[in-house]
């Protein structure tokens, strides 16, 4: 089979001679370093992607992702949303919503949280998280309430129990002083998302929430928008809205959490990327030793007509081959390790969660391709200086004492 002469010689140098054990050892360690670095980076990024996706599904699947309202959150209630709002909601029709901070009180406890009033729908994200009750039990005028299991446990309430909701923003002045708007609600359902939302979010019917907040019948907070990817709110929030309308989204309440997760993922990627960088420096040291050892052979090749570019290609092939092999093997091992991480931890007796559960894993093919390509590019860049040194060898000086 035909091989370009530079590739052929470069691959021969990669294998090395049987007596040159030290150079071969350094070359193998460079390949192993890149393999370990890429494998670790792929595995860690897959776990961090899993955590981010889990948070996105559990928290942002329940909380209102975005609300478009008129100023002072007093929006006129109409049969359908304005056309510009319908265009923004890409994953479903906009729905009316009433939202306010509220205080919930039971016979044994007092807590604060976020109260939202909705029109019950089969497509509402909270329906998939219900562990008791049904969303259809939210009927106007019956003052039914759905809360998270964490809040239910702390309040010591269950289905059928009554709690008192108080909204301080709708308080009124009386001869006895300022009294918040309050009403008794019946627990009609309990949901579980596995996040801190379970201790804060309370859901009731749109009409009942409006009455509690002393809103007029034709008034609501705004229109609730739905998206396939909640992170698109960053771009959508920059779009101009008609006069008198304003935008708010989940970042006001949970933005810091997701920024922390993203920063942690970036920092982990940077730290593990340094492993690949160290391995690339090993390639430089290995190639420099090979160039010093092969000076006479390079001189002979030049006297036989090999150009500087061909000599440069020989050592680039040798050094880059370590990076290519290490990156491809590391990427494959990283995918394999990520897919089997939970069974391996279980077999090793490592319990990361006190009550069951396992690490969320989400493998992003594009991310893996980027990691592998960057590792190959870094190893290729590491070969440039030693290869240039080899191509600048002068045959007369290299063979003077031969």
TrEMBL record:
<dbReference type="InterPro" id="IPR051447">
    <property type="entry name" value="Lipoprotein-release_system"/>
</dbReference>
<feature type="transmembrane region" description="Helical">
    <location>
        <begin position="267"/>
        <end position="291"/>
    </location>
</feature>
<keyword id="KW-1003">Cell membrane</keyword>
<dbReference type="InterPro" id="IPR011925">
    <property type="entry name" value="LolCE_TM"/>
</dbReference>
<dbReference type="GO" id="GO:0098797">
    <property type="term" value="C:plasma membrane protein complex"/>
</dbReference>
<dbReference type="GO" id="GO:0044874">
    <property type="term" value="P:lipoprotein localization to outer membrane"/>
</dbReference>
<feature type="transmembrane region" description="Helical">
    <location>
        <begin position="361"/>
        <end position="385"/>
    </location>
</feature>
<feature type="transmembrane region" description="Helical">
    <location>
        <begin position="25"/>
        <end position="48"/>
    </location>
</feature>
<comment type="similarity">
    <text>Belongs to the ABC-4 integral membrane protein family. LolC/E subfamily.</text>
</comment>
<dbReference type="Pfam" id="PF02687">
    <property type="entry name" value="FtsX"/>
</dbReference>
<keyword id="KW-1133">Transmembrane helix</keyword>
<dbReference type="InterPro" id="IPR025857">
    <property type="entry name" value="MacB_PCD"/>
</dbReference>
<dbReference type="Pfam" id="PF12704">
    <property type="entry name" value="MacB_PCD"/>
</dbReference>
<feature type="domain" description="ABC3 transporter permease C-terminal">
    <location>
        <begin position="270"/>
        <end position="394"/>
    </location>
</feature>
<dbReference type="GO" id="GO:0042953">
    <property type="term" value="P:lipoprotein transport"/>
</dbReference>
<protein>
    <submittedName>
        <fullName>Transporter</fullName>
    </submittedName>
</protein>
<feature type="transmembrane region" description="Helical">
    <location>
        <begin position="312"/>
        <end position="341"/>
    </location>
</feature>
<dbReference type="InterPro" id="IPR003838">
    <property type="entry name" value="ABC3_permease_C"/>
</dbReference>
<keyword id="KW-0812">Transmembrane</keyword>
<feature type="domain" description="MacB-like periplasmic core">
    <location>
        <begin position="29"/>
        <end position="211"/>
    </location>
</feature>
<keyword id="KW-0472">Membrane</keyword>
<keyword id="KW-0813">Transport</keyword>
